[in-house]
Design a protein that fits this description.
Layout lengths: L3 E4 L14 H12 L3 E5 L9 H4 L5 E4 L4 E4 L2 E5 L4 H13 L3 E5 L4 E3 L1 H14 L2 H8 L2 E3 L11 E5 L5 H7 L4 E5 L10 E5 L4 H12 L6 E5 L5 H6 L2 E4 L5 H6 L2 E2 L7 H8 L4
Parallel strand pairs: 1-2, 1-12, 2-3, 7-8, 12-13, 13-14
Antiparallel strand pairs: 3-4, 4-5, 6-7, 6-9, 9-11, 10-11
């Protein structure tokens, strides 16, 4: 029986300029031909994932850092933040003067002022396609707490560090550095406590009938820590943060050095 291969998107399959190495495309196709399942495992919500990436024919999708799980086109699981959790989180982010938005599966939710600040930040990254993909389905509100289908929040330009926000929300949420760019202390991602990529992986393999030992995960950033540790084999990209490399079973080449293909060859997957 083949294995389940889980791939982070930003910094793993797609670089921070929105480009995917052709070698990675070929490796994914070859892995499926060899009987393995290929699964996206991203901090992005499903609507934020590039349409051309989805067209590659993944067997499954784990989105919103584990809050959304899909297999064979069937939605297996979704987890939403409660109104109480949202009130606590947004109050802290307002105190930090952060700009933030919520991921809600089919759309992004934010306020007008937060939208403008975040758009300016993403323009500086220089990836026009990512801006279009993320902000195409935007909903503006001044009352985020009213929504019942919010999976996670992302924030930028906080005057309070990620570590402090993590400590203050520890009872209800998990907080990691941003996965959309190189990790910095003023930007982060907030999910419900215990909801992470490893949780999504477990939901997926239970449904697919695959053992934990037959999983391989590829990642590069802070929100990949649990995924790399949970997988039977955890692969860190050469461009990964050092803390992830220390957790990994194998460190491959960088994303722009054909790192995904190289690791899959070395591990005998293709």
């Amino acid at each position: 029986m083949g294995k389940a291969l889980f791939f982070d998107v930003d910094g793993t399959l797609v670089n921070f300029q929105g480009k995917m190495p052709e070698s990675a495309r070929k490796a994914l196709k070859k892995a499926q031909q060899n009987g393995h399942q290929i699964v996206l495992c991203s901090g992005r919500s499903r609507i934020q994932i590039y349409s051309w990436l989805l067209e590659l024919g993944f067997d499954g999708i784990i989105g919103a850092t584990g809050a959304y799980v899909e297999c064979g086109g069937k939605v297996l699981y979704r987890h939403f933040m409660t109104g109480k959790e949202l009130r606590t989180v947004t109050a802290l982010l307002d105190e930090a003067d952060a700009c933030y938005s919520a991921q809600a599966g089919t759309r992004m939710i934010t306020s007008a002022k937060h939208r403008d600040r975040q758009m300016a930040r993403f323009r500086n990254l220089g990836d026009a396609e990512m801006i279009d993909q993320i902000w195409r389905h935007i909903e503006i509100t001044d009352d985020m707490v009213q929504y019942e289908d919010i999976e996670k929040l992302v924030y930028y330009e906080s005057k309070i560090s990620v570590q402090t926000i993590r400590e203050r929300l520890a009872a209800i949420c998990d907080v990691t550095e941003s996965s959309f760019e190189a990790a910095v202390s003023d930007s982060g991602e907030i999910t419900c406590r215990g909801i992470n990529k490893a949780y999504g992986m477990r939901k997926y393999i239970e449904y697919a009938g695959i053992s934990q030992e037959d999983t391989v995960a590829f990642g590069d950033g802070p929100n990949d820590f649990d995924m790399i540790e949970y997988a039977g084999v955890g692969v860190a990209m050469g461009n990964a943060v050092e803390a992830l490399k220390r957790r990994a079973d194998y460190v491959t080449r960088g994303i722009d050095e054909d790192g995904v293909e190289y690791a899959m060859v070395e591990l005998g997957l293709i």
